[in-house]
Design a protein that fits this description.
By secondary structure, the protein is α/β, with parallel strands linked by helices. The protein has helices at 43-56, 77-83, 100-117, 129-146, 163-170, 188-194, 217-226, 247-250, 259-262, 319-332, 336-354, 375-381, 385-393, 422-441, 443-447, 460-465; strands spanning 2-3, 20-21, 121-123, 153-157, 174-178, 199-204, 230-235, 254-257, 277-279, 291-294, 299-302, 370-373, 401-402, 411-414. It has a seven-stranded mixed sheet, with helices on both faces. Strand 13 (401-402) and strand 14 (411-414) form a beta hairpin. Helix 11 (336-354) runs parallel beside helix 14 (422-441). It starts with a strand and ends in an 8-residue tail after the last helix. It binds pyridoxal-5'-phosphate. Pyridoxal-5'-phosphate (PLP) binds next to helix 4.
């Protein structure tokens, strides 16, 4: 017998009924003889340690988080409670008969998401947006293989999200990039130039990463379909269009959604997500397995999908994310549309307020986000977008997405989301104006920001080249 935890300074943070385990089956030569030397801490010490660490972090509960393309909105806490209900904590291998409730939830969630996207069939399995993209592109690949066409190319506009080319490449395609026109839209002439019978699909984000709605989307869909090609819709930021239009109406064949952006799962720390992929009828037989079916009485996991690309994740995906999304959709009901309205209204409000102080490269009505540039500040005051982003941290604000999309120099991509009040937006505008003024009057303050965060300005080159990953208490 061996004592697992020895008390050596009288402090104890654990309470085990039996502090010994039988180690007789372990050969003596593998047994530790010296003390483990673990820190001896009380429960309260440990709590304080982790609380102090969490206080150093920034989160939506602390302040405004306008991280473009990431939809860092408020996720109702009641959904966390629901996802943690004991009855949802079931083993993924449990038989269909014993999991009817969970299967019904997935079936009904699928139904709701099909209505929202306009599509005909879907998989809940992929665990992130990029994972959904790869799944969608694998479906497209298998489709062309099955109908005997060897199409190798995928067209991607230069305004697309960075994950798009990576996902298409992972699925085995070659990427053809096309330039946007001067209004930040897909250039139809550029598209026609690269279109041939070798093109499997176009991957588009609509609104694109400039936050602009692609006005020519129906024409693009017609051109692509006439060429026998398919259209992939990156629907990660669905709060831009939800309830107003959908990818099916625009002529898309495959779409992925980020349930962890639009549908209420907190994200950003690398936690579980769900990159649901929905398809039109002719791609139904290519979905990953299992798909959830209902015969009128019983729900079931079905593995019998004719041309399935196979499973892309274990079991049915990240179930707890699906519970949150289902709860969110039920709670919102018809108000899903108001989420879209507010997301778009908030973005346009900020854009109009800020364009007097920062250059706005595409002065058009935007959707859920928009892109300004710090070029003026850079050339006139020697203060870069990175410095402005750091200065925002002193204003209890998470920096926006910066230097993306790549087609805008010194880009600052702002997505306020639907959950902020006008007061909060005005506060942000004040902070941005103050920074723009300080760029002129006191650039050193901006250049040396942040001043109020637990970690001050870091040496990014050293941090990247010689990362120090050890914790120092
Ligand atoms: C966030 C995002 C993705 C990627 O989603 P992940 O869950 O981070 O993999 C893809 N496209 C767009 C437009 C996004 O905003």
């Amino acid at each position: 017998m061996q004592t697992i935890f020895e008390k050596n300074n009288g402090t104890n943070g654990i309470n085990l009924t039996d502090n010994t385990i039988n180690t007789d089956f372990i050969s003596d030569k593998f047994k530790r003889t010296d003390k483990i030397g673990l820190p001896q801490l009380s429960e309260l010490d440990v709590m304080r340690h982790y609380k102090a660490l969490s206080d150093m972090n920034f989160c939506i509960e602390k302040g405004f988080y306008p991280l473009g393309s990431c939809t860092m909105k408020y996720n109702p806490k009641v959904n966390e409670y629901l996802a943690n209900l004991e009855d949802f904590n079931i083993h993924p291998e449990v038989a269909n008969e014993m999991a009817q409730g969970a299967l019904k939830l997935m079936y009904d969630l699928s139904d709701a998401l099909l209505k929202i996207t306009g599509m005909d069939a879907l998989t809940l399995q992929p665990s992130a947006g990029a994972h959904g993209e790869m799944t969608g592109m694998m479906i497209i690949k298998k489709y062309f293989d099955t109908i005997g066409e060897q199409r190798k190319k995928v067209i991607i506009p230069d305004s697309a999200h960075g994950t798009n080319p990576a996902s298409a490449k992972m699925a085995g395609f070659d990427i053809v990039e096309i330039k946007s026109n001067e209004r930040g839209q897909v250039d139809i002439e550029e598209l026609k130039k690269v279109l041939d019978k070798d093109v499997a699909a176009i991957m588009m984000t609509n609104p694109n990463t400039l936050g602009l709605f692609e006005e020519k989307v129906e024409e693009i869909s017609k051109i692509m379909h006439e060429n026998g090609s398919l259209l992939y819709y990156d629907g990660a930021n669905f709060n831009a269009i939800m309830g107003y239009t959908n990818p099916k109406l625009m002529g898309f064949d495959v779409v992925h959604l980020n349930l962890h952006k639009t549908f209420s799962t907190p994200h950003g720390g690398g936690g579980p997500g769900a990159g649901v992929v929905a398809v039109v009828d002719k791609l139904r037989d290519y979905l990953p397995t299992p798909v959830i079916t209902f015969d009128g009485t019983k729900y079931k996991r079905c593995y019998d999908v004719k041309h399935s690309i196979g499973s892309v994740k274990d079991f049915c995906g990240n179930f707890s994310v699906l519970v949150r999304a289902y709860a969110y959709i039920l709670m919102m009901g018809k108000n899903l549309k108001h989420a879209t309205e507010n997301a778009v209204l908030n973005a346009n409000y900020l854009k109009e307020k800020l364009k007097k102080y920062y250059d706005l490269p595409y002065d058009e009505p935007c959707m859920h986000e928009f892109v300004i540039t710090g070029e003026k500040q850079k050339h006139e005051n020697g203060v870069s977008t990175l410095n402005i982003a750091k200065a925002l941290m002193d204003g209890n604000t998470h920096p926006p997405t910066v230097y993306f999309p790549l087609i805008v120099h010194e880009a600052i991509m702002i997505e306020p989301t639907e959950s902020e009040t006008k007061e909060k937006l005005d506060e942000f505008v004040e902070t941005m104006i103050k920074i723009a003024e300080e760029c002129k009057t006191n650039p050193d303050k901006i250049l040396s920001a942040p001043h109020t965060t637990p970690v001050k300005k870091i040496d990014e080159v050293t941090a990247a080249r010689h990362p120090d990953l050890n914790f120092k208490g």
